[in-house]
Hints:
single chain, 205 residues, alpha+beta, Glutathione S-transferase Yfyf (Class Pi), Chain A, domain 2, 4 strands, 51% helix
Amino acid sequence: MKLYGFPPSPNTRKVQAVIEALEMPVELAIVDLGKGEQRKPEYLAINPTGRVPTLVDGDFVLWESNAIMQYLAAQRPNSLWPADLKAQADVNRWQCWQLGHWNEGTGRLIFQRIVKPLLKIGEPDATEIKRGDELFRRDAAVLDAWLAKRKFLTGNGVTLADFSIAAPLMYMKEAQMPAEGYPNLMAWYARVEAQPGWQRSQPKF
């Protein structure tokens, strides 16, 4: 199998965390977003969205990071993607929440404060930053309350859900996400950061 991705990307990072946690033999092919390699015809031929990551497994091509995570974790028994259907649904619920809600705030702050300056595509938009801050606080409050009596999102062990929601927080400081007011969230994130697979997936800048 080969993963086409950009290690600094949170979506690539969470897939790599699964690969590292499960010690899977997956080759990484760098798609440098800073150089626009995601728009090259050869990459668009496997992923017409021009986004990362993309997994190629023989003649099977899969894009969308959460789908890739589930596909990889389903390859062998593990606690990241439990076999029990209700437990899987619980993990999937949080991965859907990440896409539908959590990314609204974190994505705005990362784009305005990191991506724009990095790619030199304009000045950060104060209105977008304000909205991102509001959305982050809205969703961080949900997570903080949920995690008040839980070590991880769906129980006592890390799952795909935790990797998915932790991924954008890798830029918590750089994107100035206002997370300090949510102690349960911060304690949970520290537990995710302590996971060996998460540590080994840390991008090397």
